[in-house]
Predict the structure.
Amino acid sequence: MTAPQYSAAPCVLVFSEDNDVVLQLLRVGRQLADQCVGSLVAVNVGPKNVDAAEDYITRGADSVLFLRPNQTGGLGVELLVDAVYQGIRLMSPAVILVGATRVGTELAARLAQRLAVPCAAGCMTLSLGVAGGLVVERYVYGGRFIAREELRSAPLMATVQMKRFEAAERDKGRVGEVRELALELPAPKVRLVATRERTRSEVDITRAEMIVAAGRGLRNLEALAILKTLAELLGAELAGSRPLTSELEWLPTDRRVGLSGQTVKPRLYVACGISGQIEHIVGMRSSRTVVAINNDPEAPIHDEADYSIVGDLHEVVPALIRACKERHRQKV
Amino acid sequence: MTSAGDLPKALNVIVCIKYAVDPNQLETEPVTGKPNLARAPCRINNFDENAIEEALRLKAKHGGKLVGVSLVSQAPPKDVLLRALAMGVDISYLVTLPGQSRPDAYVSAVILAAAIREVAERSGIAEWDLVLCGEASVDEYSGQTGPRIAEALDIPSITYVKSLSVNEGTLRAVRVAEDREETVEVSLPVVVTVGMEASRPRLPTVLQIMGAGRKPTVEMSAADLCPHLVGMETASVVKTLDVSAPSTVRRREVLSGETPDAMAREVLRRLIEQGDVWFR
């Protein structure tokens, strides 16, 4: 395949307010830059940081642009948009990639509107088409289908699903340019009054080999404790659907599996009292083996399971715990 | 607190409503693996119902106008259309697109922003205090429309909001990020996108559903609002190459057994057999 033709060497610009996500964007950004024989620039809002710059360059960036605002402290989305917009004006990138965090989603939408272009949201794969368009794959219709779309705007803009790509690897031999641009930003209209950190887990469930997941079918916190016992016996991590993590807050939000949460790919996924709304299925579809425990034989989760037990989880899970203990004793 | 005799200002709110295909009822064509859009029922985007709920709570407290606006390529069935009015929205405006046009998110936001201004004028107010949207649409899940409208109107946006209140022209909202909740304040006007963590939307009563038919629905043409954008087809900028269902092959075996213990032993036996569970 021939590389698409550009008048000048095209530039791929990546931005995320989350450093882990920047490293993921550098991997896919590098692929696109290589495809169009262009350069990759990582944009960071804040004063020049030599360590961060070196990290980005060894991981694939050709240059790192620091946008230093006139005020100190963290900026809200509102001013991040203004800052990154000035970076875009300076670099005139052909492609702009933003991490699809909640801040990134809002920021990309406002930037795209300012630039009068569309923006493909939550992309899972990205490549350049023969004619120079951006070809992406992303979930549509609540995650039931995958659309392949081609964007033909200038610039080409997309947000990239979090954790879809591994962090780019380091190559100590790489060199690059570091720039800093001082910005005059207006006073923010939106004022941050208070922040409440939500409890965070020690573990990253996207890397778990086994997962026991809890859904709305759980009667109370005691039921959750029973699931925890099962998880410990199996050596599994505990996860939950959206109602359990967001509404009830029985589990930290970073243990939420689904379109609005994490995408997991364990060897075994045990869904307990989960109905199987498409929002959840999207997050666990890549599991190797799925066991569903749900007392509703009509629940859609059974269509997504290898083995289904139609029964009350409050009876079935204790039975599973007993069965595990029996097996365990046989081993000893 | 407002001093005695000083009436609290009424709050004028416009809610953007999307009528979308219900993904949970969308079927896959068995041969092609493509979605059967023609047969899929349409509904009000569920996140937008959360936005309407918040708007109704504000109206109960502050009074003022509560209007719904929607961009459609063809009007949805009457029962779907009346849902927002039955919930308590006063008037609904349908902005119709010409022919087969499918505007992209940029063009949609320009048209909606123009409609929002036009409806304010028709309602006899200078501008809306609050523009409410759902955090995303259930079909696209892009989460772009709210912030794009804010950009087009040149006002601030606050996204993924869980709860909000207004006091003397200042909005206070709790927005939910991945790992934290932020309480923010901003002077009106502002665009707020309401998340699923917000209050559960109310179910309209039978009486409200019957009464909704008497509330006005006004049609407006996108071509009249934005003559410069007419004929601007999304196909030129965003082209859908393919839509297909992801393929997962599951055994879908329902385990039979007399007791939970029997079923539990059976499933564990199989999992150990195929190497998905092991005890060290």
